[in-house]
Specification:
- The chain is an alpha/beta fold and 718 residues long.
- It is globular and about 85 Å long.
- The chain binds adenosine-5'-diphosphate and zinc ion (ZN).
- The site of adenosine-5'-diphosphate (ADP) has 14 residues, from helix 7.
């Protein structure tokens, strides 16, 4: 039989069936060279060898077989992204403790009185147990939390201070109750009915659910989830951000009487194992997760929802390069269930799929019981005469005063982390860069260090210029949220200020708590980066000020207009979410006549999309043409360019499908962690068989040893 292993160079290999046999999709352990590795039975195999000469499967693991639907999905996804199948399989087997059959696990808790005289390490174990607050904790988790070896814990067990006991391993998730939804209103009714009908009917159907923030999209798709639960099938809701889930989980709990299963990088390994298994058993009715939840082994998937479908964080940029939104549509198509893409500002890809008749579009017109998006207006910064080290215009400052005076909240949005984006020597003009990347170092004043946003490297803020040696002339140039916070503190000394920037929080939990505090009225002025743009609900917020609306329009990226348009509308959508309060949004800009800024202010969304679509059509770029990026990286800059040039020269297979190759050129991020990066872009007609041609083309070359090659289908920037 054929077994696919997760080994990097693996492919489907022939093995002999074990005694007792096994079937397609079974998880098995097989010998590979001197080792035993994890694999999945992937069909009958080639049968080329005499069965007596091939090695047998070592054992069949105690797990539900991987269903044909998931295997087909992995195979298609591997083909589409030009990823080796074993790497795809790894995404689907990453979490589970496969081959760990015991149905109980050993956990530890405090038992007896704690003696006064304890060694330092034993003391840490006690502290760690207290920190877990009585929750069951395994030996591994405990040793890690205490920073000691397992023997220390065992020693305490002998003393009778700590007890060990076996508990059932995996408890199912509580059943969600489907029957306590809100009564939908207005155009929510029609949208909800349509989605519920899709779920009831079963089968693939793709829908764009479009409506401004607060129009009730979540409420509507939760109706479809409820229908799914009533039919005892499973639903998957993908969200772009961990920070979003806190609010979301509470809401689901209110709607369904219990929390759903959660899957993202912040979830413990133990919990992931449980979810992986429960998903396979059909015991997790609703899974809310980040993009990797797509690879869970659902027993009976009845609905997939991708919330904030335009969000760029759905694109996995490391390892296997895939766009979770597109993969969600693929999985729904293969498994034969409806998929809902929800957004206030859909991606142009989705918009084009609606135009092409591939997706149905459901619109939620106005906000639930309230007005439209707040009115957006420009502040022409050329007229504001601000000194070079200040960023809040007098016009905007006056609005903030008024809002805060009424006891409401103002949000100042600046999509730049840190204190200042540039550290510059006023004597020679040198800008401090990262030693490993092609990036400028950003000053972070809370950490008192310069940080590279590319690789995370840090160094002290230099007193003397590293280039010319002159002392005392180093200056922080340009605004970041931390510097904006200083300006706010000076300008509004009475106001309570909260800074929301992902790097200021040690954990997702700390960020969640901060957000909850702000929503409850714990701040007058919120200063935030991109993370505030996403879905958080601040009921008192009525004014949004965008500090630099021009920021996203710089550079040559063809998607810049789309991104800026989406981001500005989203940020503005934070203001005035409730019926009682009306919001306003002000954009500080140096180019109020720029077409994108005008489109944002004009609010004629359909006109913006149509114009943007026409431009992309004319250029033959996605979504009206197909593109792939080939990223080459190596510590040796000459090597990457030479190899890139070699690729570009021998482009026969691409020319045969009428595709063009651009480059090699420095990649959008030209150097990361000491590796130089070069990119080639391949552009083809929409209908061209791009993947096959790419595979044939790249198959001609054998990259040098230090050189890495990654294929990025549908790159984010081009
Ligand atoms: P979106 O997902 O489009 O941002 P939500 O579904 O979060 O919108 O709805 C915004 C707010 O309005 C939420 O607090 C929600 O509970 C409320 N809401 C939406 N629809 C209704 C309804 N039919 N009845 C009562 N409240 C509603
Ligand atoms: Zn760096």
């Amino acid at each position: 039989m054929g077994v696919l292993t997760t080994e990097p160079l693996g492919r489907v290999l022939d093995y002999r069936a074990p005694e007792g046999g096994c079937g397609d999709g079974d998880f098995v352990e097989v010998p590979l060279g001197p080792r035993r590795v994890l694999g999945v039975v992937w069909g009958p195999g080639e049968g080329r060898f005499d069965p007596s000469r091939i090695r047998p499967v070592t054992r069949v693991l105690d797990a539900r077989p991987m269903r044909a639907e998931l295997r087909a999905f992995l195979a298609k996804a591997a083909d589409y992204t030009l990823t080796p199948l074993p790497a795809m399989l790894r995404l689907a087997t990453r979490a589970p403790g496969l081959g760990a059959p015991p149905s109980t696990r050993r956990v530890y808790r405090l038992a007896g009185p704690v003696p006064n005289q304890l060694t330092e390490a034993r003391h840490r174990v006690i502290e760690a147990l207290r920190a877990f607050g009585g929750a069951p904790v395994t030996l591994g988790e405990l040793a890690e939390a205490a920073g000691c070896g397992a023997s220390v814990v065992k020693g305490l067990v002998k003393l009778g201070v700590v007890a060990e006991e076996d508990t059932p391993r995996d408890t199912p998730y509580p059943r969600l109750k489907a029957d306590r939804g809100m009564r939908l209103a207005g155009d929510q009714v029609e949208a909800g009915d349509a989605l519920v009908a899709d779920v009831a009917r079963g089968g693939y159907a793709a829908t764009l659910l479009k409506g401004v923030t607060g129009s009730g999209k979540t409420e509507v798709y939760l109706e479809a989830v409820a229908e799914c639960l009533r039919a005892h099938r499973q639903a998957l809701v993908l969200l772009p951000e961990i920070a979003l889930t806190a609010e979301f989980l509470t809401r689901v709990e209110a709607r369904f009487g219990a929390k759903p299963a959660e899957w993202h990088s912040g979830v413990t390994m133990t919990e992931r194992r449980r979810l992986w298994k429960m998903a396979a058993e059909g015991e997790a009715g609703l899974v809310v997760g980040a993009r990797s939840a797509l690879f869970l082994p659902f027993r009976d998937l009845g609905l997939v929802v991708v919330d904030e479908e335009h969000d760029t964080s759905y694109k996995q940029e490391d390892g296997v390069l895939y766009n979770a939104r597109d993969m969600a549509v693929l999985r729904a198509a293969i498994c034969g269930c409806p998929v809902v893409l929800a957004s206030a500002t859909p991606s142009l890809e989705t918009w084009a799929n609606v135009e092409a008749g591939k997706y149905r579009r459901l619109d939620l017109g106005s906000r639930f019981g309230a007005a439209e998006l707040p009115e957006m207006r420009a502040i022409d910064m050329r007229a504001e005469k601000l000194p070079g080290d200040r960023w809040i215009s007098p016009t905007l400052a006056a609005k903030v005063d008024a809002v805060v005076g009424r006891g409401e909240q103002a949000l100042l949005f600046l999509n730049r982390r840190g204190f200042a984006p540039v550290t510059l020597c006023r004597a020679c003009g040198h800008q401090v860069g990262c030693d490993h990347c092609d990036a400028r170092m950003v000053e972070h004043r809370f950490q008192k260090r310069l940080v590279c946003h590319q690789c995370g490297a840090t160094k002290p803020v230099p007193l003397a210029c590293p280039a010319c040696g002159v002392e005392g002339r180093m200056a922080a140039v340009g605004p970041g949220v931390e510097r904006l916070a200083e300006e706010v503190a000076a300008r509004f000394p009475e106001a309570r200020v909260a800074v929301l920037s992902s790097d200021l929080f040690g954990s997702a939990r700390a960020l969640k708590e901060k957000i909850a505090g702000i929503a409850a009225g714990g701040a007058d002025i919120i200063i935030g980066t991109q993370i505030v743009a996403k879905g958080h609900n601040f009921p008192l917020l009525t004014l949004v000020g965008v500090i630099d609306a021009d920021l996203g329009l710089q550079g040559s990226d063809l998607r810049a207009a789309e991104r800026t348009f989406q981001l500005m509308r989203q940020v503005a959508g934070r203001a005035g979410r409730t019926a009682e309060r009306k919001g306003e949004a002000w954009l500080q800009t140096h180019q109020p006549e720029h077409p994108v800024i005008r489109a944002i202010l004009g609010g004629d969304e359909e006109a913006f999309w149509a114009a943007e679509a026409a431009e992309r059509k004319a250029a033959g770029v996605p979504p009206y043409g197909r593109m792939a990026g080939i990223i080459l990286s190596s510590p040796d800059v000459a090597q990457v360019f030479d190899f890139g040039a070699e690729l570009a020269r021998r482009d026969g297979p691409l020319r045969r499908i009428g595709a063009e190759v651009w480059g090699p050129a420095p990649a959008p991020i030209a150097k990361v962690r000491g590796r130089h990066r070069v990119r080639l872009l391949v552009k083809a007609e929409k209908a061209a068989p791009l993947q096959a041609a790419l595979a044939e083309w790249l198959g001609q070359f054998k990259p040098p040893r230090d050189l890495r090659l990654a294929v990025d289908i549908d790159p984010q920037s081009f």
